[in-house]
């Protein structure tokens, strides 16, 4: 699989899960990818990332570590509870962030939800104190375990405005890490040049623009079961194939397997997305968010333009 990715021209690979450090094969996967010239990132919850494991990650060619932190201690531990006795998972995560920040480029990753949205400024300041310089912020998607929680967890579309205001301020605040705004947020608004911008280490930003979901166009995901998808969070209904049945090259080179992006046509859009004059450019925002929010890739309620009444 790793060799096929390299032969297909893959330049960046993210090894994630679940929790990849629970599977001993993570070392071989990262080592092989790195040996083939692929830039390798490892995403973990940090609780298993002790000094020995960090040294192993560096030795096998991991170039970037991503660590999930979902709020301050009480909130993070409520979202990511530890089974059985022991100290707070948050404390293990914070220790891992501090440890990694001094050894490898490190990105903190936060899924924004109703429990932690008000804590974002404090989390950002905490990260700076730990030496973490990059912070990826994304919406919790209403899928999997999130849908089974007893109370409201994911943000509603009407909460996007306040989140956008925080992001605008934080992106300009030298007291916050450099923020990478995920593809679950934004789309064709006045803030998009900032949200989609490429942030340099010196704090300046090269403006960007949202041009639609890249799943199946320049990105592909392979699940632990060998299923191939445009994005790791997509549902089985959008699977492009299985590596148990055919090669990755066969799947990837058949653009029809990813028709939601490769064969997009504006007339496929529905609801507010169909009414939007920028629908052909935006293409419904994040495909995964659209599907898990509405059951279709043709309409995405998590859109700042829609919340502002733009058409």
Blueprint (SSEs and pairs):
Elements: H1 2-7, E1 12-15, H2 26-35, E2 39-44, H3 51-59, E3 62-68, H4 73-79, H5 89-101, E4 106-112, H6 120-130, E5 134-139, H7 145-148, H8 160-171, E6 178-181, H9 192-195, E7 198-199, E8 205-206, E9 221-222, E10 227-229, E11 241-242, H10 248-252, H11 259-262, H12 271-275, H13 279-282, H14 287-294, H15 304-307
Parallel strand pairs: 1-2, 2-3, 3-4, 4-5, 5-6
Antiparallel strand pairs: 7-8, 9-10, 10-11
Rg result: 19 Å
Terminal Cα span: 44 Å
Shape: globular
Number of strands: 11
How much of the sequence lies in strands comes to 5-15%
Question: Helix amount, in percent?
Answer: 25-40%
Going by helix content, strand content and strand pairing, the class is: alpha/beta
| SS element count, helices | 15
* Major sheet: arrangement of strands: 1-2-3-4-5-6
Biggest sheet, open or closed, and with what strands and sense? Answer: 6 strands, parallel
Can you tell me the residue ranges where pLDDT is under 50 for at least 5 consecutive residues? none
What is the arithmetic mean of pLDDT?
A: 93
Order of helices and strands: HEHEHEHHEHEHHEHEEEEEHHHHHH
Sum up the structure in keywords.
311 residues, alpha/beta, 6-stranded parallel sheet, 3-stranded antiparallel sheet, 11 strands
Give a short summary of the structure:
By secondary structure, this protein is an alpha/beta fold. The chain contains 15 helices and 11 strands.
């Amino acid at each position: 699989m790793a060799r096929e990715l390299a032969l297909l021209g893959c330049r960046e690979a993210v090894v994630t899960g679940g929790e990849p450090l629970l599977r001993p094969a993570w070392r071989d996967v990262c080592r092989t990818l790195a040996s083939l010239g692929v830039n390798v990132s490892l995403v973990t919850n940090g609780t298993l990332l002790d000094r020995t494991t960090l040294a192993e990650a560096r030795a096998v060619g991991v170039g970037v570590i991503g660590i999930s932190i979902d709020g301050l201690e009480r909130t993070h531990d409520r979202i990511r509870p530890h089974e059985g006795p022991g100290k707070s998972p948050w404390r293990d995560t914070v220790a891992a962030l501090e440890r990694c920040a001094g050894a490898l480029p490190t990105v903190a990753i936060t899924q924004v939800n109703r429990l932690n949205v008000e804590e974002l400024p404090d989390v950002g300041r905490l990260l700076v104190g730990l030496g973490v310089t990059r912070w990826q912020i994304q919406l919790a998607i209403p899928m999997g375990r999130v849908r089974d929680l007893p109370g409201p967890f994911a943000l509603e579309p009407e909460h996007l405005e306040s989140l956008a205001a925080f992001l605008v301020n934080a992106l300009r605040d030298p007291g916050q890490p450099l923020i990478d705004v995920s593809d679950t947020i934004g789309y064709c608004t006045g803030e998009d040049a900032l949200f989609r911008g490429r942030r340099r280490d010196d704090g300046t930003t090269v403006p960007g623009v949202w041009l639609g979901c890249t799943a199946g166009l320049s990105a592909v995901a392979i699940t632990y079961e060998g299923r191939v998808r445009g994005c790791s969070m997509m549902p089985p209904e959008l699977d492009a194939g299985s590596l148990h049945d055919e090669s990755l090259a066969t799947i990837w080179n058949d653009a029809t397997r990813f028709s939601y992006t490769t064969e997009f046509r504006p007339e496929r859009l529905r609801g507010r997305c169909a009414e939007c004059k920028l629908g052909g450019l935006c293409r419904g925002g994040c495909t995964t968010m659209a599907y898990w929010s509405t059951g279709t890739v043709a309409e995405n309620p998590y859109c700042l333009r829609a919340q502002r009444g733009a058409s």
